[in-house]
Amino acid sequence: MNKKILVLAGIVVVVLVLVILLSQNMKTAPTAKNTNQGAPISQNQAGQPTSDVATDVTTAETPVDSPATVSSDPVVAATLSSMPGSDAAPKQEIVEAEKIPAAAIKLSVSDTGFTPKDFTIKAGQEVSLAITGVGSSTHVFIFPMASLMGLQTMVSGGETKVITFTAPNAGNYTFRDDIPTFRDNTGTMIVK
Fold this sequence. Notes:
Layout: H1 2-28, E1 41-43, E2 49-51, H2 67-70, H3 74-80, E3 91-95, E4 105-110, E5 113-115, E6 118-121, E7 126-133, E8 139-142, E9 153-155, E10 160-166, E11 171-177, E12 186-191
Parallel strand pairs: 4-7, 6-12
Antiparallel strand pairs: 1-2, 3-10, 4-5, 7-10, 8-9, 8-11, 11-12
């Protein structure tokens, strides 16, 4: 009986040591993913990952993984890359159609796509984006890049959600419906 307890205690100690080592290793590992198919990734003087191949923020297949590429303001970058629904993420609220802010950019999503497909904002501008679900399906509005994950929201048919955020740096940012059946429905946020 004592041997079984000693063996079990030894296993627990080994598992704890492995967990500690893995967590320390994850803290020091670079966070950027190499999406450039073989392009070398190195670090600049600030310790940020860099690549010898330029990335294009206009496609979902080439995500912007570094918040610094989205905004030079660390607060804006942290907010936009925060988990949706967290305290740090951009504010989201369900509103009735008559209570949508007058200055909001209105976007509807249905089984056939987004209307309008594109919208333009200014870098650094405070933006209210009103997304309305049309029809009976549920849709998930998402920018398929980690640096803009805080803008993700789900809307049901007839529901409108308003997301308020500060626009990232200039560029074209592709958004899509993240429901598997509707993933081909895309649009572009153009930031000037």
